[in-house]
Specification:
Structural class: alpha/beta
Number of strands: 26
Strand order of the largest sheet: 7-6-8-9-10-13-14-15
Length: about 950
């Protein structure tokens, strides 16, 4: 059915052509065809156009074509070739009616434009360029603009789709790569003019350098790639890109003039694919030319363009010759006759007839400017099909139509589904490098980004405001960045310099030397200085600490003295004739009668050591001397114990050997050092260097022979103008050894002892968090060398201003204060530590609680003694006690004869029993 339709169209076409020329004769047209080497599409298309005219005599014209070819580099040789061919035509009286120029750009195109403008030769050009790009035709007058015409070829109009894509998808950065099938030299300034998009336009590199080229473009913060070229060039570029460049933070747009499918050895890549499609009304004609006239040179759209342009140009001259509007007395100058001022005047309105041609086109209709300048605004209209192509395992596995784009200088995209094209946009994903340091950055596999902390929350808040995403990685050397003696940087700063990172995040101090190579945002954290961290001195507490005031042998000696003195007192009281137990009659009228047996002696010596006192002293002089001696001994022991107890309980609280940096610098017992490669290390090293430099300056001045004695005496001071405090400290730090990680520093602090102490100098925020989460560490002294924390970005990066606005907004909303509270006051790892004893505090229960234990032990022993006393009294054998009357009656009955002899002794025993009854009343016995 299609073949019959095609044949029918051809018959109709021939019939119309025959009808239009029934009354006209064949017109002979002389054409000077100027082409450049390697533009085979134009050469073949012109040849096919000549064949087409020969096979269609109804067109009423005969073409005499003179072909000239030249290269883009040798303009003189090309000029001589053109002039020779042109002069030869004039000498043969075959002056060219028209010059058909298919040079592309560069020297070849400029040479042709220069000759045609100077000699006023009617010309139709297919050179690349928009308004003003054809330099030799830039300032032509109105007369010349009627016969010096240019129509942009498809390869010149196709790149304009990039502008439409950028505007539609709001792309802020772009890398445009092209091969030799596109010419982009004149597009650098015009393609994305007045669009806020950072872009780079560059030719596709050779195979060996292609991967490096793509990586360099990525390092310029570009993640939108446009590739213009043949299918083979597109395949080569896609295969050169690293695998990670096809993730969601990248977008690939491939644009070609060729027909076919995208293939590459890519693993899971999705690209936007744009290729031209012919006008549906012209497809039959295109098929006819391809099958009958062999118009098969690729790219198809370019060959069809050259064919239509040539045929249209020839028809234009034909119509002008037939209508008689072609200037009959047209004069031609040779190149040699031209002197720069004798350009012929032409009254040839080639433009009007060229626009009026109604010949059907082969690929797409021409869009020819009528009001605006013709050159740079005229082109062939066609559509480009836009599709999404998914490539897996080297082949296209899914192709989805997204819409189309009609060729034009400001033509918008026509998208079927907006959501579909959104999936092809490159998400704004910034590369963040950091150093893990709690609580700013904490590694957490369960977190969305694999990390959490103050800075992560801050970045999330900024991302909400600026609408971007980010991926975070740790820098390999775990350094924020320091410069070595060779001027080379490491850490996060190195990543930013090398364009491998977009953002440096963490507790990164703003330093002058860092600001020379990178940029910092406004501070997001208060001024943070360097401070000292040491192990919290542990004062050992004991419930029986009051017993440790005296050594064990002292306690044993006191105990021995106690028993020995008690024993002596009993001996002296037993054998002294003046003691109570040996002089009962003498002391029978005294109110207090105390017999110093062993029990009473032990009790007397014990109570003599208490404020209660020992009670009644011995009656004998020797016993009193022993008691006085014991009193004196007890007074001295108690006074010494009291004084030492107070000092012993407070001496540990007064032991603070280091309270400031100066204290640390003046002592040698405690080692100290900052973290290797940290800002604190840089501070001490720089301060040491400054002291050394100032010392050298002072030394040179003081040893200067040109100074007068008075001037020299002013410099002869005991102390140097700059002390060597930091020089000595830096030397001590190097001898102590700088820890490489924060964990190593904390371990050294914890493993330090009173004999080998270690103090760590670091950022106050890090130390404050360590103290917050550990009960065995403390902050010593005040902060010094205070610097703010800020987010680092690449030098000149637009992120600086964007982040500044976001941080200031969060600051005004007090969001930063809330984040600080979350991570410093409500932190889940915060430890509840016991309050350390202060000098103003009293004695704690931990140190004096043993006294209460003594009380409870004493009470317990008393209770046990009471039970023993009860048992002993109840179960021991007690003699039966009777009164005197009962005893007399019993005695009389048992022994009437001996009663009188025993009466005296019985009465004596009765009296004794009566005394016993007085000591143990009847009521007490009955209670038991």
């Amino acid at each position: 059915m299609t073949q019959w339709k095609m044949r029918l169209n051809v018959v109709i076409f021939l019939f119309v052509s025959l009808k239009s020329v029934t009354a006209q004769s064949t017109q002979n047209i002389n054409v000077l065809f100027i082409n450049e080497v390697d533009n085979d599409q134009a050469t073949q298309a012109i040849d096919i156009a000549l064949t087409y005219i020969q096979k269609n005599p109804n067109l009423g014209m005969s073409i005499q074509l003179t072909k000239v070819e030249g290269n883009r580099t040798d303009s003189k040789k090309f000029l001589d070739t053109i002039c020779a061919s042109y002069t030869d035509l004039i000498s043969k009286n075959q002056s060219p009616h028209i010059v058909l120029d298919t040079t592309i750009t560069g020297v070849a195109s400029e040479t042709v434009k220069s000759i045609t403008s100077a000699l006023a030769l009617p010309t139709i050009s297919a050179s690349f360029g928009q308004e003003g790009d054809l330099r030799q035709w830039r300032d032509i007058n109105e007369q010349k603009s009627n016969f010096l015409l240019q129509v942009m070829p498809p390869a010149d109009i196709i790149p304009e789709v990039i502008r439409s894509i950028v505007q539609y998808m709001n792309i802020t950065n772009a890398a445009i790569l092209y091969d030799n099938s596109f010419v982009m030299d004149h597009k650098y300034k015009a393609l994305l003019q007045n669009i806020p998009t950072r872009h780079v336009i560059t030719a596709i590199a050779e195979e060996a350098d292609r991967r490096q080229q793509i990586e360099k473009l990525r390092n310029l913060d570009i993640n939108n790639f446009f590739v213009l070229g043949s299918l083979s060039s597109i395949k080569a570029v896609l295969e050169s890109a690293p695998k990670e460049y096809f993730e969601r933070n990248f977008a690939w747009h491939v644009i070609t003039q060729y027909n076919g499918d995208i293939t590459c050895k890519c693993d899971n890549a999705t690209v936007m694919y744009l290729k031209p499609v012919s006008d549906p009304l012209s497809r039959d004609r295109l098929g006819l030319l391809k099958t009958t006239y062999n118009l098969k040179k690729e790219p198809e759209i370019t060959s069809a363009f050259y064919f239509d342009l040539a045929l249209r140009s020839f028809l234009t001259v034909r119509d002008m010759l037939i209508s008689g509007t072609w200037q009959s007395n047209m004069s031609y100058l040779t190149c040699d006759d031209y002197d720069g001022k004798n350009t012929p005047e032409r009254a040839v309105d080639l433009k009007s007839y060229f626009i009026g041609i109604t010949e059907p086109t082969t690929y797409g209709n021409f869009s020819l400017a009528t009001r605006t300048p013709f050159n740079g605004y005229s082109y062939m209209k066609f559509d480009m099909d836009i599709s999404s192509v998914s490539i897996l395992g080297g082949a296209s596995v899914n192709t989805k139509n997204l819409g189309s784009w009609t060729a034009g200088l400001s033509s918008p995209l026509s998208i079927v589904e907006t959501e579909d094209i959104k999936n092809l946009t490159a998400d704004v994903v910034y590369r963040v490098y950091t150093v893990v340091q709690a609580p700013f950055i904490i590694k957490d596999p369960a977190a969305p980004k694999g990390y959490k902390g103050y800075c992560i929350d801050l970045m999330n808040e900024i991302a909400k405001y600026l609408k971007f995403d980010y991926e975070i990685k740790e820098v390999e050397d775990q350094r924020f960045g320091n410069m070595d003696e060779k001027g080379e940087w490491n850490g996060v700063v190195r990543k930013l310099i090398d364009k491998q990172a977009d953002i440096g995040l963490g507790s990164m101090s703003v330093m002058a030397e860092r600001e020379t190579v990178i940029d910092f945002t406004v501070p997001y954290y208060d001024l943070v200085g360097i401070t000292i961290m040491m192990q919290l001195p542990s004062s050992p507490s004991s419930l029986f600490k009051f017993l440790t005031v005296l050594e064990t042998n002292v306690w044993l000696c006191i105990l021995g003295a106690y028993f020995f003195t008690s024993f002596l007192m009993w001996v002296f009281d037993r054998y002294s004739p003046y003691s109570y137990q040996n002089n009962r009659e003498k002391y029978k009228d005294d109110d207090e009668k105390r017999e110093f047996n062993i029990k009473e002696c032990l009790w007397f010596c014990m109570t003599s050591l208490t404020p209660q006192g020992g009670g009644e002293a011995p009656k004998n002089l020797s016993g009193r001397l022993v008691a006085a001696t014991w009193w004196l001994f007890g007074f001295i022991i108690i006074a010494s114990y009291t004084a030492n107890l107070a000092a012993f309980l407070t001496v540990s609280r007064l032991d603070t050997p280091v309270e400031s940096l100066d204290d640390l610098a003046k002592q040698y017992k405690i080692l100290y050092a900052p973290l290797n490669g940290s800002s604190a290390m840089t501070y001490f090293k720089r301060m040491s260097d400054i002291e050394g430099r100032f010392y050298e300056i002072w030394k040179d001045m003081s040893l200067n022979d040109s100074l007068s004695p008075v001037e020299r005496s002013k410099l002869a001071v005991w102390d140097y103008p700059v002390s060597d405090k930091y020089t000595k400290m830096w030397q001590a730090m190097q001898e102590a050894g700088l820890p490489n990680t924060l964990e190593e520093a904390v371990a050294r602090v914890r493993n330090s002892t009173s004999a080998t102490g270690f103090a760590f100098l670091g950022d106050a925020t890090d130390i404050r968090y360590l103290v917050l989460t550990n009960c065995d560490l403390q902050i010593v002294g005040e902060e010094f060398s205070r610097k703010p924390y800020a987010i680092a970005v690449q030098q000149g990066s637009p992120l600086k201003d964007q982040f500044n606005n976001a941080i200031l907004m969060l600051l005004n909303k007090r969001q930063l204060e809330k984040l600080k509270e979350d991570w410093w006051k409500n932190d889940e790892f915060q430890k509840t530590c016991e309050k350390p004893e202060d000098q103003s505090d009293g004695i704690s229960i931990q140190n004096i609680g043993g006294v209460f234990i003594v009380i409870f032990v004493g009470i317990g022993m008393a209770c046990i003694t009471l039970v023993f006393e009860y048992w002993y009294y109840k179960y021991r054998k007690n003699p039966k006690i009777t009164d005197v009357a009962e005893a007399e009656n019993r005695l009389k009955n048992d022994n009437p004869n001996g009663y009188e002899k025993q009466e005296k002794g019985f009465l004596k025993n009765a009296l004794l029993r009566t005394r016993t009854q007085q000591q143990f009343p009847t009521g007490f016995r009955s209670k038991f």
